[in-house]
Amino acid sequence: MRTGASPSSPRRRSAELPSPRPAERARPSRDPRFLRALRDVDPELSRLLKKVPLDARPPLAPEWMRCEMLERHRLLEEARILPGTTVLEVGAGPHALTTVPLAFAVGPGGRAIVTERARWGRFREIIDASGLGDRLRPITCDARRLPLRPDSVDLTVCVHAVRSLVDEAGMRRVFREMLRVAPRLFVAETLPIARSDAQRAHLAMYDLREPVFEATTGRKDDLHYLPLERLERLIEGAGGTIERRGVLEPDLPHALAYFPLTLVEAIPVARTRSALRARWRSARRSAARFGTDHPPVGFLSALRRPPLHIRRAGR
Ligand SMILES: C[S@@+](CC[C@H](N)C(=O)[O-])C[C@H]1O[C@@H](n2cnc3c(N)ncnc32)[C@H](O)[C@@H]1O
Hints:
This protein has 315 residues and is α/β, with parallel strands linked by helices. The protein is 39% helix and 14% strand.
């Protein structure tokens, strides 16, 4: 772990984890929970996950992408996606973590329209490895204005991307757009709940991301996780009626919240830097002692509320 001060410019890129070593140097870890989680899945899904590259990038285990995809797969099961349907994804992100299990869920006759504002990263490489690219249509756009006609897809999903939607007004706008292009939306996001020391250790590091990114780049990302009730209110405020809600306990390690101390050292304001440095060190001590686990993840399925005159006529 590097702890030295960095004189370098506080760019967003520096929030990323260190670059991966070449894939051929990545070896599967012996972490029994990863091995068990990946062993206990449906054989077709298991074959798919084995095609996803390993990634040697401590403190992440080499299988981290496969395990995150498994967690996304379990969440998408709650979305009740029918094979052959068309589903739109908001905020795909650089590793296609939801996109791969989504392409699996829609099946060979289905399609996923995948939106991302800017951070495609390794998306193409991972999709190519999965062999499911022909089910996907990636679009670069801002999901606050989706370039799609009303009711042009069957379902919209936003999985672990609410945290990147800048603020609650942005979230509401995205949910409204999701409910314009489809009659149903599905949203899943980590909850600010810890039932174990390892989940608490994840939250301690994760909760540093919002203030550190803001202090270094002036932009908001990785917002603090919202309580499920707050997400419900936002979806209702965007014109949705909640039809189902639930909480998934992933029971998986989760080191993705980690970022290097060099980013904290790039904060220009000394008092902020010093306070966040102390919190970062404390979070690392907890991670070293307990490990870091996925906190519970909340999910919501909502239907578009009919316009008022139709609701009144139906009374
Ligand atoms: C946390 S990341 C990846 C989430 C991914 N679905 C997963 O399962 O891990 C969220 C992504 O949402 C993207 N994003 C944020 N705001 C967006 C917007 N308004 N429209 C489209 N994408 C957006 C960000 O660029 C980021 O890559």
